[in-house]
Write a structure and sequence with these properties.
- The chain is an all-alpha fold.
- The chain has one domain.
- About 70% of the residues lie in helices and about 0% in strands.
Length: about 90
């Protein structure tokens, strides 16, 4: 059923959200990806758990790159000012 997960938008978004939440909490996302890669290398290949971990690693790798790209673009920008309140008259 891994092939189904690969095309399941909700499953992919859930895995992306895990890494985004860790980033927003200030966790080291590179260390998380490295730890997942290490556990995948140490575990037995060909098991359903290994396939799930490989899929998670694939999603996390692309998400990590995306997070760092956005972080670079946002660096040096001031927070956007809130729009002026409308007059209720």
């Amino acid at each position: 059923m891994l092939w189904l997960k690969r095309w399941n938008f909700i499953e992919r978004a859930r895995l992306e959200r895990e890494l985004w939440d860790a980033f927003e909490a200030g966790d080291d996302i590179e260390a998380m990806v490295k730890q997942l890669r290490g556990s995948l290398a140490e575990g037995p290949p060909g098991t359903p758990a290994a396939a799930d971990a490989a899929f998670r690693l694939e999603v996390w790798e692309t998400t990590r790159v995306r997070i760092r790209r956005i972080e670079t673009l946002m660096r040096g920008q001031s927070p956007a000012a809130s729009p002026p309140a409308e007059d209720p008259r």
